[in-house]
Amino acid sequence: MAIYFVKQGNLSVVAGALIDRKGKLKSGSVLARLGPGDSFGANTVLNGKAWTSTVIADTQCELRSLSVEHLRDSLGEFLSERLELNFIVVALRKSAVMSQFSSTQRASILEAMSTQSFTAGEVLEVELRFAVVVDGEISGTHNGQAVRISRGQWFEEDALLQTRRDSQFNTSRQDNTQHLVAGETGARVAVLTKDVMVMLLNDMGITAIGSAKEASDYTQKMLLLGKVPLFRHISHDQLHHLIDSMVLQRYEKDAHVIVQGEMGSSFYIISYGTVEVFIDGKSVRNIGKTAYFGERALLFDEPRTATIRVTSSFAELWSIEKARLCQVLTEPLQEEFERRIKLQDTNIKAADLHGVKIIGNGTTGVVSLVKHRRSGMRYALKRVQIRAGRKPDETAREIDILGSNDHPFVITLVKTFETKAAIYILTELITGGELHAAMRQLETVMSRAQARFYIASLVLVLESLHDRNIVYRDLKPENVMLDANGYLRVIDFGISKRLDEDNGRTFTMIGTPHYMAPEVMLQAGYGLEVDLWSLGIMVYEFVCGCLPFGHELETPDEVCHAVLNEHLSFPREYRDLVGKDLMGELLSRRPQQRIGMGITGYSDLKKHAFFKETSMGQSDVFQKILGRELKAPLIPMGEQYAEDDPTAKVILPCDDDA
């Protein structure tokens, strides 16, 4: 058995494949297409089971393999331990409940879980919140149906996924899942008990949690708030305060929750039941459990734009009041919320836009400042030419990745327009210019405190991207912009890539040589760890004032040679031992040993002394940045753009169609 990596060629993964005598495929269902950078076989190796599908080469292919024997030689007695850890990490990432915690919080959950052994037929008596089978299997009944949980699969308590109404009918785990029993060969299970979950939530700062039921209630509210993009990236303290302020309200059938035209001050998340949305008396849609509405009322004094009526026998909704939100959020964060809510309007038509001026002109397209004719809202509009009847691959990737993004430090995609001549990408307008240009305004290199602000912000972005298995591949100051308050926005996702979920590797040599990791240059296969190398280069540039490898060199070949062969050294005047240690850990030539790539992920990186500030006491710099509680080191003076040409003609989608 082995894990295979595709270097060249195309393959198909086929279920139920029937092969004739000549080796040709006669029948079967194609499950997936594989190309350069993709991999297959990881699940077979990790689970030790037979292949469940057939992989067929559609073209001439070149593959690289990593055998089980090589894994054993490399990891020795630690192979089983590593495989078990992998099962738990994957389960935490894919679990409907546990995936709602940040990667740092999941690392804490991982450390708190214990592995227990059960003999054949032994009942799992422990009160489980979450459990992962790392060897053997367990079985039982769930809602009257027989269930079998095999190696690498997991169980999570239904109460965490139920609403309060649901739990009236399922008051305990035993009512739902009966007699979890170890299989014929016994089982080893990594478990998280209810009591340990309570302890973890308290360690996360939720001091009001005192029982398993309170922990379950808190987790349910957290899951609901996690469905709202606006609340996904706020500080832990702010999230805790919002959860504490949530009020459960019950409405009977046909009751009006809000009425169009009335002033409102409440935001709602549906916990149970269904409601119907009416605009100008006409039914628009029906929405149910976990859906939300009324977010504009939290920040704007304006009439409701729709009527919401209960259609189920009754409905239960959690509400948050505007007054409470204003107490919880800092003023800068309230302003950020206002900006993000305004950007949620996707009903914009191309004809609504008025071209103001050209503000950028790069290799991928021209960027214009445009203005909405009625609202006055300003946006950036990027025009990318369509060639040979198809949009460029990098543009399609960028749209795909930005379309699933909700991080406040990543540029916000509003909408796209497509004509026969071009594709137009409408995004938020970022007015503070490039971080690369702002750095040149400093009279000297950055202090640790200044660098910490920017690097911590980028750590938050990379953590969010890597949680979704997206490798950025071109992290550098030119791809980071500043908003009006000096906070970061990462832009230009054209060469980013979404990696395979189970064993994401890619081989393409791509990026900017000075910031490119050695393994990218060697084209030997790489993953998310390359972004951490680039981050290390940026730390060095910030605090040392130059690049660590090939600073004076310009040609790609010379830079690559320097990156591959030069040793990391520091200017004589740079004496910060903590900073040197962080850069050494990020710029490790062993990719998997870079800080942040361990089994506990970004938790290790965030705990590094570089990110500690004694003047903050127990406060966390990452939480303060998310809460917009820190003043940025550089505040832009007015609006700054790469280009500023009010005389050049702005081409809009309607011009292409004219």
Automatic annotation (TrEMBL):
The keyword RNA-binding does not apply. Signal peptide: none annotated. Keywords: ATP-binding, cGMP, cGMP-binding, Cytoplasm, Kinase, Magnesium, Metal-binding, Nucleotide-binding, Serine/threonine-protein kinase, Transferase. Residues 353-611 form the Protein kinase domain. This is cGMP-dependent protein kinase. The keyword Ligase does not apply. CDD domains: CAP_ED. One of its GO terms (cellular component) is cAMP-dependent protein kinase complex. It comes from the Eukaryota. Its cofactor is Mg(2+).
